[in-house]
Amino acid sequence: MHKILTLNNISVAGLDRLPRDSFEIASEITHPDAILLRSYKMHEMEIPKTVKAIGRAGAGVNNIPVDRMTEQGVVVFNAPGANSNAVKELVLAGMLMAARNIGQAWAFSKGLSGEDAEINKAVEAGKKNFVGFELPGRTLGVIGLGAIGVRVANAAHALGMNVIGYDPTITVRSAWQLSSDIKQALSVDDLVSRCDFITFHVPLIESTKHMINAERLKCMKKNSVLLNFARSGIIDDEAAVAALDSGKLYAYICDFPSNLLKDHPRCITLPHLGASTAEAEENCAVMVADQVRSYLEDGNITNS
Ligand code: MLT
């Protein structure tokens, strides 16, 4: 019997890949052979010596002490690409929210009171404050051309946007299934100065920390929009707030709320929802459950 410890809720579709006649699965279990988790932060955790594999139902592995685990011979699996459509859709929603002032307009509508005739009057007076702009012809910069970045780039292109990609390790030409109309930036600085929207699809590592800082914000086009659905810390939030206040940035859409960002009138924060769709949760859980099962049963390492 293989024992699996779950540190977060894992979609039933994934757990169903582990037949109960040979897998015991529980959120509390002694001497587990493997751990399945989503966003539980494992760095401080004492990881039982019996663990041979960890399966992260998501793309990033920054909540897992990967180096320590590797030294101990524990194999860490993740689910690259399994939630990329979900993230892409939320990035598109974020762009549209910014372009059409949806957050502010919704807050305005919710604040309306009185009879419908009074509401209509207030609507007539107030709607001029929410005139937006359209996406075709605007330029989107995509930093990171992995499974998510490529999908975002293609979808924005289909909406009529000009798209410029940049990745520190792959060229636009070699990125898998990327539309041939996507242009290549030579560097982050090159991309930053040419875009109306910039979206990030890179992990948070030493070289991406505060990739957007006060200096780079100065080089951005006036009224540009930042979208961070990757990891908190890629953008220097204090510098971004200063740029929102000075009018340099039009909006900052961020999937990580903080005290600094959550109440800013031109910042829309979400509670890390990029991968939160039923489909993505299922896809991720199925992918890592299959990987962990194959490893525990046959010693196969099949991280796709
Ligand atoms: C990811 O790395 O893919 C996301 O953080 C997944 C999640 O929200 O759990």
Automatic annotation (TrEMBL):
Keywords recorded for this protein, A-Z: NAD, Oxidoreductase
All copies of domain D-isomer specific 2-hydroxyacid dehydrogenase NAD-binding, residue ranges: 105-274
Start and end residues of each D-isomer specific 2-hydroxyacid dehydrogenase catalytic domain: 22-304
Keyword Ribosomal protein: no
Molecular function per GO: NAD binding; oxidoreductase activity, acting on the CH-OH group of donors, NAD or NADP as acceptor
Keyword flag Nuclease: no
Pathway stated in the Swiss-Prot or TrEMBL entry: Amino-acid biosynthesis
UniProt record similarity statement: Belongs to the D-isomer specific 2-hydroxyacid dehydrogenase family.
Protein name: 3-phosphoglycerate dehydrogenase
Origin species: Sedimenticola selenatireducens
